[in-house]
Design brief:
mainly beta; nine-stranded antiparallel sheet
Length: 190
Amino acid sequence: MQEEKKNIVTFGLENCYYAKAVIAADGTMTYETPKQYPGATELNLEVNGDLIEFEADNIIYYSSPDNKGYTGTFTAALVPDDFLVDILGEEIDDEDGVQTERSNSSSSPFALLFQFEGDAKAVRHVLYNCSANRPGIGSATGKNVNTTELSFNATPRPNDKAVKTKTKESTKPTVYDNWFTAVYEKVAEA
């Protein structure tokens, strides 16, 4: 049996998708079919949570990480109108053909799916419980292409505390190939 070749570096960002989440009364999240978020240029995730330390006997007696997920920024060419409506609660007036942002709009949690290239195999990721802030807007004279930055949090899912899942070299082909068709959930064996 041949050993799987492992990544030693990652680079590139592609295949970005979002899936609107619905939270049931018991905290269980289900997801709509993922929609593509095209034009991604950069994704940065910073750890959210501190290292908890307790001192006793003149030493650090107990130490534990406090995993509150991630705080991130996602930069792309444009925020898709579907995302602005589905996730940030903007409203479309089909009669006049306009889209309106309201100060009292309700946002929706979502899963963020994406892929990092690697030297051996692309790694696919999902962040299960994201919430986004409104993106800024701006432009400048000339033909330089602008990007839009979206700030967001990826926090533990209420029902099972899952923050993220990623593929590995050993991921089954059926799981890997279908990663962007539905938000990955472990299927219990019968």
